[in-house]
């Protein structure tokens, strides 16, 4: 890692998650980490209400707890979760999580929104526009534990994976340490 992330780039703000990562790095224990984040959560909250948004966060927590129960599941905050895998079945678990979410989330939408595959809502600038339905993205990283010293470096890689996962139609990307190019 050539660059140290700034405070604003540090997406792993939960101290328990940071400690877990620092522990794995300090003992050179290999791991993969999946960063799950809801897409278009703000318009969902705006249309259906904050309580309905809380129910979706609970849904994600339940799915992760069920499918990844043998692994470390951490709530970063809001609609962001991480799962730390120390065994090799990370990809399969993540794909199962996304599939399960896609099956269960349809119950949270009104029929007309499902038919239209979205709804009108205000963006962050206050402009009314059309948004797709709420979705779940997953950025998976496999940090090189011999090259990384702290959770800050892992956080930088996770931020990049999260960003890329929102840009691909599959909703999932996999990054290795060496693929990080951003500052
Ligand atoms: N219901 C609910 N909403 C929350 C909670 N924490 C944060 N939010 C909302 O989450 C939204 C911000 O999450 P973002 O992931 O940045 O919003 P987004 O629309 O999904 O943006 P993209 O991830 O870029 O698609 C804001 O509308 C917050 O009000 C929470 O605990 N409950």
Automatic annotation (TrEMBL):
Residue stretches in coiled coil: none
Protein name (Swiss-Prot/TrEMBL): diguanylate cyclase
Domain GGDEF: 29-178
Pfam families: GGDEF
Catalyzed reactions: 2 GTP = 3',3'-c-di-GMP + 2 diphosphate
Enzyme Commission number, as recorded: 2.7.7.65
């Amino acid at each position: 890692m050539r660059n140290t992330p700034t405070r604003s780039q540090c997406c792993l703000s939960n101290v328990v998650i940071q400690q877990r990562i620092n522990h794995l790095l300090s003992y050179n224990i290999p791991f993969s980490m999946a960063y799950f984040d809801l897409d278009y959560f703000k318009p969902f909250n705006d249309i259906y209400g904050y309580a309905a948004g809380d129910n979706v966060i609970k849904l994600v927590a339940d799915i992760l707890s069920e499918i990844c129960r043998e692994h470390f599941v951490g709530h970063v905050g809001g609609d962001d979760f991480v799962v730390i895998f120390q065994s090799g079945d990370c990809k399969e678990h993540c794909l199962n999580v996304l599939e399960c979410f896609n099956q269960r989330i349809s119950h949270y939408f009104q029929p007309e929104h499902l038919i239209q595959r979205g709804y009108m809502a205000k963006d962050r600038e206050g402009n009314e526009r059309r948004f797709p339905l709420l979705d779940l993205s997953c950025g998976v990283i496999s940090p090189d534990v011999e090259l990384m010293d702290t959770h800050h470096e892992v956080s930088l890689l996770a931020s990049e994976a999260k960003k890329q996962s929102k840009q691909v139609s599959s909703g999932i990307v996999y990054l290795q340490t060496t693929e990080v190019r951003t500052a």
